[in-house]
Every structure is written in structure tokens, then in C-alpha cells.
Amino acid sequence: MSRVVIIGCGVVGAAIAYELSLIPGLKITVIDKQQPAQGATGAALGVMMGAISHKIKGNAWQLRQTSIQRYETLIPELEALTNRKIPFNRQGILMLCFEGEDMSKWEKLVEIRKSQGWHLEIWDAAKVRDRCPHLSCDRIIAAIYSPQDRQVEPVALTLALVEAAQLNGVNFKFGVTVLGNESTTSGVLKQIHTTAGELECDRAVIAAGLGSTPITASLNQNVDIRPVLGQALHLQLPHPIGNRDFQPAITGDDVHIVPCGANEYWVGATVEFSANEGDVVASSELLEKVRQNAIAFCPSLAEANIIKTWSGLRPRPEGRPAPIIGKLPGYSNVLLATGHYRNGVLLAPATAITIRDAITLSLG
Q: How far apart are CA 314 and CA 318, in angstroms?
């Protein structure tokens, strides 16, 4: 059997493990220094902006399209296999447009998506008011509705991926840290040194987010990934807001409002960079600004109790586009699947398929 080691068990690493578990003849081991979904995945809101994004061609669009399509089969597949319920909002994404918005770019995107087999709608302010009576339309001039985009609960998804992969024979080792690597002069990684002992490998996949930088450094490659902090709030209201039968994820001014049942909503997220390349310190002022921005177009949120706030570091590649998927330079059997920045949940299935195809090809 071909031995595959996956380093990292956020949503991307877990998706890769599950997708590879469907291939016969692989012995798959996943290691992570934490429990699953404790890094960037645990702080994500799971809003998957695919068709509504302005990526229209090339790999950036193809990854989004592949993921959105795969999610439609992946969620029921995982639920049937694990008997877990994965919160998956199929009511789409509504993006609000405010005064000064150039609507011609949206009209053009609607036509492009139509030619690609996807559906977008432009709503005027009256339709927004009718479908979403909880929104204040003082500044809203229109909205873009994407019925085929989705939102998923990232931790529930990751845990289901892990369990499904385990049922298919994948071995997970949590609380295990990579100490170093042993490679041959021919650029083949043979052995990974960890706190749980030595792991022999025929192929390795580095899907460790921010942890990918020191791991690649141990292989004499500098894959520079920097932290960007995001914060969010979990709010509870005395009653659902808006139309009970129409609860899409809503986004406006780069703020997401995500319904999550039981009169509860997530609101986020900030984008906070480090100063002078030091640690990123969460700003309570920025989080409050996000809350106030959400209240500005959804006044009902002012009544909400804050159940909790949370934050997480997102892995953003320095000086190159996100994500990084493909061979690690200098190595024939090491693949990178990292640096997804704000799109880890969205792109996890497509990343997993890309890695699966690369390994399948290498098996001949």
C-alpha cells in the first residue's frame, strides 16, 4: 500500500483525508498538534461565496465552482455515513448594495454566470424590503441574491469528515507535533519525525495553515504564510428576525450575518493584520465596529444578547495568491494544500479533489 501522511486537520486536511479514503490501496495517516478544527476552521463563519464572487475564469473560478458542486453531494454523503447532522444553509447568500455601488459590474456578472450555468438575481430595494423585512433599506439601493451559494457550520463539517474518513480506515493522530523531516538527495521525503515517533511516507500533504511555514522550512523551502486575525460574535435574540421561511446568509459592508437556528446568529468578521510582523492582537474596538455595522442594516440585532465572541488566525500567503495547492518545489512526493486565507471552508472540497487527482496520477 502507498503510505500518505497528511499534516494538518482543519477543514482542508480533513476533506483531503476523506477524499483520499475513497481511493483503494492507500494507507492514510493524519497528524495535527491540536484536535480537529482548532485553528482557522474553528473561527470561520462558513459563508461560501462562489457564484456571487467576482472570480470568473481560471483556477480561482474553477476551484469555487468545483467546491459548490461537490458540497451538494458531500453533505448528504457524510450525513448518511456518520449519522451526524451538518448545519447546511441552502437558502443562498444575499449581498447588499449601498449608495455609490456600481451596479453595472453586477449586471455583467449576472450574464457571465448565466453563460456558465449559474443563477444570480438583482433585487431592487422594494424586493429586498419584501423578502427581508428586518433589513433597513435607508442606504440599500439593491441586493444580489445567489440561490446556489451556501453556508455550512465549519466545525460540524470537519468532525463529520474526520469520522467518515475514520470509518473508511484513515488513522488520525492528534496532539502530535512535527519535529523534522528526513529526505533523500533526490528530493523525496521518506520519513517525518514527530513527537509520537517516526512516520514513514511515500507521499506527504502539508495542509497545516500557518503551521505550514515551519514545516516547509525544515525541508529547506520558504513557504511564507502570515497570520490575519478574524473576530466574530454569536448573538441570540428573543425571536427570529425577518421571514421565518427565508433565512439566507446576508453580507454587506464586508460584514456577514449568518442564521444558525434557535433565534441565534453569527456576525463577523474582522480582518486584522499584525503590526511590524509581530503577533496579531484582537481589537475590541474593531469587533464592536462590526457589530454596529451589522446593526446599521439590520436594526433588530441591537436587541441581541452576546452569547460569546471568538477569534482565529487565517493563513494568508505573503507575496502570492491564496491558496497554495500543488507540489512543494524540490520534492517529487510532497504536496501543498495551504494558505487558503478567508476561503478554507469554501475551497476545501475542490482542494481535496485536486490533491486526490495529483496522487492518483502519481500512482499511475
A: 12
